[in-house]
Design a protein that fits this description.
It is a single chain. The protein is an alpha/beta fold and 322 residues long. Helices cover 49% and strands 16% of the residues. The protein has a 6-stranded parallel β-sheet, with helices on both faces.
Length: 322
């Protein structure tokens, strides 16, 4: 073999080795976000926040959709772990399903940051959550105040909740309930939990509520898209203006809904900011610096009086308009 041929072959071997090294490097330079349901704007916006930090720091980003299915969530986690990713951000299907994912990741020594929906147990690097209790309490205070202004202090209120198997669902329900109690409004109609979080589902729930509680005056819808269904049911029953509505999470038309009094108040989580904080905490853990065990992101409470001032912040941290 000539020296020239040997040198050429050596270069090829070195190049191949570098290529394989880069492939291995790429495999552990990926951040995965396992979302509870990717087609809901809230979780989609969290993903945008996670991605912004991951890519800015040289990591690939991959999103996996659990479609509100605990078995699919576990499979997503197994797939991510098999890829030997650098870390996982997860919004669990519910707090009961999270420990199984955490156990697998801990065994594989892959750090996990939990975002939004909490866990009933297990080891994780950090938990990024909205101050759901405080936000719901403030929304409830606005509802109670308006009910009293209208002379409806003795009338019942009701809640259409997200899953109460989730820590955030428990916090929202308790926050609003405590605010109403502190305001002296104690008549609560039976609550209903959402299953698929659709407008159609909530329309049916509210229609039933209006039948069983015809004197209902206050209503708390605990997430964004179902508000549309509630409004449809109330309009169909010809009770628009007779029932005060407050909600959690903001739709793009939140400003107009508040200004025309369709909604009394909206507790707005900041999902883009939550995604940013989640990715920051995860990368801190990956680098060997433990992040804070819990990071609390405040709720922006919008009303007709302050929504114009809030909108610049809302557009960025709530809707993720970069």
């Amino acid at each position: 073999m000539s020296i020239k041929t040997f040198g050429h072959n050596l270069i090829l071997v070195i190049a191949l080795g570098l290529g394989l090294a880069n492939l291995a490097y790429s495999a552990d330079k990926q951040i995965v976000y396992i979302t509870a349901k990717s087609d809901l704007p809230f979780w989609k916006t969290i993903g945008k926040g996670v991605k912004s930090i991951a890519t800015a720091n040289g990591y690939d980003y991959l999103e996996m959709d659990s479609a509100l299915d605990a078995k699919k969530e576990l499979q997503n986690a197994q797939n991510a772990i098999a890829k030997k990713v650098a870390g996982i951000v997860i919004s669990p299907v519910d707090s009961k399903s999270a420990p199984d994912v955490l156990a697998l990741a801990m065994k594989a020594k892959i750090p996990v940051v939990i975002t939004d929906i909490g866990t009933n147990g297990g080891e994780y690097a950090s938990y990024i959550k909205s101050d759901n209790y405080r936000g719901a309490y403030d929304v409830g205070t606005a509802l109670a105040s308006t009910m009293k202004e209208k002379g409806w202090g003795d009338s019942p209120f009701a809640m259409v909740t997200i899953s109460l198997a989730r820590k955030n669902g428990q916090d929202r329900s308790n926050g609003l309930r405590d605010a109403m109690k502190d305001a002296g409004i104690t008549k609560e109609s039976p609550l209903h939990q959402m299953q698929d979080y659709s407008a159609e589902e909530t329309a049916k729930i509210v229609k039933e509520m209006l039948t069983t509680t015809p004197n209902l005056r206050g209503l708390f819808i605990e997430t964004d898209q179902p508000v549309t269904g509630a409004l449809q049911a109330i309009k169909a029953a010809k009770k628009s203006g007779d029932i005060l509505i407050v909600s959690f999470d903001a739709m793009p038309e939140v400003a107009s809904l508040l200004k025309n009094s369709t909604l009394v108040a909206v507790g707005m989580q900041q999902p883009y900011l939550m995604g940013v904080r989640s990715a920051e905490a995860l990368l801190s853990s990956v680098s060997g610096t433990p992040p804070a065990k819990q990071i609390l992101v405040p709720i922006l409470v919008g009303t007709s009086k302050n929504i114009d001032q809030l909108m610049p912040t809302v557009n960025k941290t709530v809707f993720g308009n970069e």
